[in-house]
Write a structure and sequence with these properties.
The structure holds two protein chains of two kinds. Helix content of chain A is 41%, strand content 17%. By secondary structure, chain A is α+β, with helices and mostly antiparallel strands. Chain A has one domain (30-103). Chain B has six helices and four strands. Chain B has one domain (2-135): P-loop containing nucleotide triphosphate hydrolases (Rossmann fold, 3-Layer(aba) Sandwich), CATH 3.40.50.300. Chain B has helices at 21-25, 42-57, 73-82, 95-103, 107-110, 115-135; strands at 11-15, 33-38, 62-70, 87-92. Chain B is an alpha/beta fold. The chains are: A alpha+beta, B alpha/beta. Chains A and B meet through strand 1, helix 1, strand 2 and helix 2 of A and strand 1, strand 2, helix 2, strand 3 and helix 4 of B. Strand 2 (31-35) of chain A pairs parallel with strand 1 of chain B, so a sheet runs across the interface.
Chain lengths: 103, 136
């Protein structure tokens, strides 16, 4: 199941996203947090902390600038460019898949 | 990207960019549920109305309005009147959100029993329950 969270900046959408993801994980669901914001702070709302949030953002910037090879599959992205949040939520800030492999 | 993520039992929570830019670029029917988070302010409600319209027109699943930072009945009424055709759920104004923001922490770690946290947890339960029912 995919859930999109939208809203004006400052509406609290990232806080809602973070608590939503953690709550779903606590109730037994496998959960991925996907940060598509140009100012990505979902890591903070998930509880991974400043340093790890910055590390993931830096990775995304390196991919966008061609300094890092992009993963070609969803699982590859989660493995290479994701991190584990409390309660087991997997977080990634990479927001596109280049040349995804066919099913 | 969301549309190319394979379907699975995993729940994906996508925090889209502020405004409706990502939503307008998202291919039709990319998600099963859209949460539109609005504060009880005219500008936030205006963005929320446009987001709800785009999500509905582009078939982005069930659209739920999350009335956030609701301090009183007037706030609640303002949002519900603006989104009379949608499901509206309320998250109360709660200091836990400010405290978490200042600490760089998750609100659920600051106080898992805080009213705003429990309200969002209830929303999570509702969404997944309705998503499973829709999938049947």
């Amino acid at each position: 199941m995919k859930i999109a969270v939208v809203g004006k900046g400052g509406s609290g959408k990232t806080s809602v996203s973070g608590v939503l993801a953690r709550s779903l994980a606590r109730s037994g669901h496998s959960v991925v947090g996907l940060d598509c914001d140009t100012n990505p702070n979902l890591g903070l709302s998930l509880g991974v902390g400043d340093l790890e949030t910055e590390r993931l953002l830096s990775l995304r910037d390196q991919i966008d600038e061609g300094e890092q090879e992009h993963a070609h599959t969803w699982d590859g992205i989660l493995e290479a460019y994701g991190t584990d949040s409390p309660d087991g939520v997997r977080l990634t800030v990479v927001n596109r898949i280049d040349n995804p492999e066919p099913d | 990207m969301l549309s190319s993520v394979p379907e699975s039992d995993t729940v994906i929570v996508a925090d889209l960019e502020a405004g409706i830019g990502t939503l307008t670029r998202l291919p039709e029917a990319s998600v099963q549920s859209t949460l539109v988070v609005v504060e009880p302010t005219p500008r936030s409600i205006d963005v929320g109305l446009r987001a709800a319209l785009v999500a509905t027109e582009r078939n982005q699943g069930h659209v739920t309005i999350v009335a956030n930072k609701i301090a009183n009945q007037d706030d609640d009424t303002r949002v519900r009147n603006a989104f009379a055709d949608h499901d509206v759920v309320t998250v109360p104004e709660d200091r836990v959100m400010i405290t978490a923001d200042r600490r760089g922490s998750s609100p659920i770690d600051v106080d898992p029993e805080a009213p705003a946290v429990t309200a969002i947890s209830d929303i999570a339960t509702q969404i997944v329950r309705s998503g499973i029912q829709n999938a049947k």
